[in-house]
Every structure is written in C-alpha cells, then in structure tokens.
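Write out structure tokens for Redox-sensing transcriptional repressor Rex.
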Amino acid sequence: MTIDKSIPNATAKRLSLYYRIFKRFNADNIEKASSKQIADAIGVDSATVRRDFSYFGELGRRGFGYDVKKLMNFFADILNDHSITNVLLVGAGNLGRALLNYRFHDRNKMQLAMAFDTDDNELVGTKTADGIPIYAISSIKERLKDTDIETAILTVPSTKAQEVADILVGAGIKGILSFSPVHLTVPKGVVVQYVDLTSELQTLLYFMNQE
C-alpha cells in the first residue's frame, strides 16, 4: 500500500482519532463503515475523511464503505500500537502526578515506565500506586541505558523546560510531549509536540463567545 509522505499536520493529528473510532466500531461488531459514519463520529465532514484517507492509497471502495477490522489494524500499524511503547515522564508536580495516575495502557499500548524529578524532590526513590518508580534526573542516562525508551512527557516549569529537554536529548530521547508553553530548541531528528492547556482553554472561550 502506497503512503504519501507529505501528510498535512491536520491529517496526522486525526490519525489517533480514526484509530479510536475503528476500535469502537469493531467492539460494537460493525463490519463496514461509511465515510459519513466516520465523519459524524469524530466531528468532521465526509469530504475531510475521504481526503485524509486518500493520502494512504485505496483504503476502501466507493459505495462499499470501509472494512472496520482492516482499517483498525492499518491505523494500529501506522501508530505503532501493536507492541508496548514505554514512555518516561519528567516533572512530578501536580500535573505530572496526575499523568502518572492516568492509565494510558487501558486505551492504547503505551505505558509510563518511569518518572524523574529534581534530586531533592521528596518523591525521588518512591513508586506510584501502580508501581512506577520516580528517580533523580541526574541518573537518567544510567536508567535509560538498557531500555528501549525514546519518548518523554515533559511537565516542568517553563524556566526549566529547555534545560531538561537538553538532558533528555543527551540521554537518547527522540520524541518529547511538552506541557511547558515555551518553544524548545532540539537537534534534527528529535520531534517535539506541544500541549498548551491555557491556549486551548482560551480558544474554547473564543469559540463560545462567537456563539
């Protein structure tokens, strides 16, 4: 199957939504789904679904709908959700602790394997209720040396974000999900995705006001 490498960011951001929808359809024993069914499920129009899918070649036949199980496995492959992906977290503050208690693996094959914070944090040396160990950031290279972990969640103050990002890159991390509202400078080959909760809330309020 031919895949267009120049997929727009908007389409890429919907891939996990498509995967989630096809998993739900499969759980509901739906074998075929139309573009309208898929569009209604994620809140876009049918044309957007067909355009998104066109980047991946022939995923379905017009008039026949999309094979739910086939597409569920297809998006699982794209999102590398056939095997467990271990992730680490840096920053065991309020947000970090909330994420440590979030059961990622209940929905996808991702799990938080370990967490890090400053060497003097009282949580260092302890484990969460789910058994996730919290280590000192100074030991990160040693802790990652014999693991397959290449992804990190960053929940540290903005003033420390770049410093910690540099430490993560130096330890071999290739992907960072940052909750710090500052732009991070990273080498080529390292991917950063930002989650700005304040910005998202302001955008929500803007659209509410338009109504």
